[in-house]
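To make this tangible, we now present a fold written out as tokens:
***
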Amino acid sequence: MDKKDMAINMAVVPSEVENMFKNFKYILKIGFDTINIEPVYGFEKWTVDKCKQFQEKMKSIVLFILAQIYKRNFIFLTTVNRELKYKTLSKLKNGVCLFHQFPEIYPDGRIGFSSFLLNLPKETQRRYIVGNVNQGWIESKYKNCVYSNKSKKCQNCWENYFNLPDESMSSKVVEIRNLLSIELANYIQQRAKNNSIFREYTNEAKKHICF
């Protein structure tokens, strides 16, 4: 397997967010160059303070990546790779529809919105399975699903699926990650117009794994 086809999934929980930048650099130190930063939902409560901490650490990571580009030491975030290649994060700014944007299908036909939840023990994973393509069924509430950011049904869909408490700011911290990834991708694309190093980085990012 080529290095461009491998990435580390760095899960971030609120209690460890202060170590986020340090953990990021440790992953680089052991030899990986592509990282997905994944805030964890439903395990601990994301508060306003923890979201601010996450934003600060994420900004540090973005600035570090930029500084390394000038040295031709290319470090990749899967979210930035995605944005450079498909602009999928920009599309999420209009709202998040799990069924439209995040369906995952397994070889046995199971459909869900999270690879982590579909790999839980069988009894636990049942509530996260929304259909099965091999068996030809889908949960009724998704059959005629059309996203609207004004719909209470759509607003509750994310929280209901991931079983998040209303007071948690899980969706906010994901939004922070996505917006900073978009900003970085846009900056890289602008610089690539007249800078060969950034053009080289963009070409490499599009070859690397994105999820």
Summary: The mean pLDDT is 90.
